[in-house]
Amino acid sequence: MVEPRVHKLNEREVRPDGEYVLYWLRWNRRAESNHALAFAAGLANRLNLPLLVLESLGSRDPYANDRRHTFVLEGVAETAARLRRLGAGYQFHLARRKSEGDRVVYEAAQKATAVVTDGYPETLAGPTAVFDVQAYAVDSSCVVPTNCIEARSYAAYSIRPKIQRLLPQYLKAVPPVRLQKRFGGHAEDTGNGRRERSIAFRIPHEPIAKLVASCEIDHSVRPSTAFRGGRVEAERHLQLFLEERLRRYSGEKNEPCAHATSDLSPYLHFGHISSLEVALAVQDYAREHKLVADEFIEELIVRRELAFNFVRYAKRVNSLDELPQWARATLDKHRPDPRDPVYTREQFESAATCDDLWNATQKELLLRGKIHGYYRMYWGKKIVEWSATPEEALAMMIHLHDRYALDGQDPNTYANILWCFGLHDRPWGERPVFGTVRWMSRAGMDRKTGVKAYIQEIEYLERTGKEQIT
Ligand SMILES: Cc1cc2nc3c(=O)[nH]c(=O)nc-3n(C[C@H](O)[C@H](O)[C@H](O)COP(=O)(O)OP(=O)(O)OC[C@H]3O[C@@H](n4cnc5c(N)ncnc54)[C@H](O)[C@@H]3O)c2cc1C
How sure is the predictor about 185, in pLDDT bands with cuts at 50, 70 and 90? Predict the structure, then answer.
């Protein structure tokens, strides 16, 4: 275990009569390539105790919906099975009511000798949990721990050399977890008459749709047409990428109909797979098959970790105040510029603009819960162009991601949405509304990509509900 990943949450002692080490699994929903799990297992072994993993899913988020709940629940049976094989106890807690907080976690912590949880930027995770027993947060989100980059980076070119210098140290597989003491007892339900609201080992046998229906969440956002959650699916996408897409990636990654990208972002977001193991697998495969994977590694590590760096150091991840000075100044200067058309929230949300390509990208978000990376830039830039103010454009993009994107509410969401307003970019030629912030045109999309084929693909998906590519 490398120290910068580990953050001690308090100065408390271990509980002498504790029954287990508790790992509260919040972000890294996997049993493999998980530094937090490895740290918790090492601690349990040192204390000669078993390990209990408590995975939770809350309904408190105002945007919690069927799509996200289904995706998470689809991964639970596999995580449970894999952890059980390792000898850990496993309890899944589904908080169905919005008012239900993290009570179950604190109850489990009452019997724990020490607690370990996933480290994640507070701007997204909320305030750090307070435990009355020794507790740690372990960062397993990035290849290079976020704490190793000591200040905010303002562009890819400034973070790239820092990351590259640290890669030899951190681009290494997490050692396999070995538990000396198996978890013998049952992972308990919460008791006190609240048993029905908590599930231990039972969730894989319950129909997921029924569980989701019982939660106090937005039921109007249906599960994704394209992505099923869980470790097996994450591994399948990785394998498909290695065997069929990696060799085409650098040439075709900006052609949505070529399906040359990995589609791993939902799995990375929910932690069903780690960027570390993806990077190692891609590196090994590329070496063995004499392929160049530099462009993919640039996105997966440099760009993704630039986004984590942004949310780690930003004060408010959803504010235009975080933009560089030149971008704020130029957007302000062009505030009075006329906008035509200007669309309402309903028009954006229901994909009812005058642009058939934009409408198709929005429909992809509505149906799949993800937009292809190249068209996602176009999608964002047009929202800037067609909104009354930059603030309204920002709020619209965040709302649509919060509501529909399976990879939304992620460091990448905020950093990339703000990229549409100049974050991590440089000034370009001056034009209306955008000033010197980079603009993207429909003519450019028509010239560089297969717009017609993409629109047809999305129309087919909308008509049939079926994916042509799996
Ligand atoms: C307006 C806008 C909003 C975006 N919102 C999100 C979001 O909510 N969640 C999200 O994960 N990505 C977001 N992105 C970045 C990018 O579009 C997606 O990461 C990518 O399309 C995911 O598809 P993939 O897994 O097939 O990518 P691949 O090309 O296969 O890349 C592999 C991984 O590298 C990372 N990556 C790729 N492109 C970028 C990038 N530009 N910046 C940072 N990391 C990158 C992602 O983790 C991705 O899964 C957004 C981009 C824009 C322009």
Answer: low
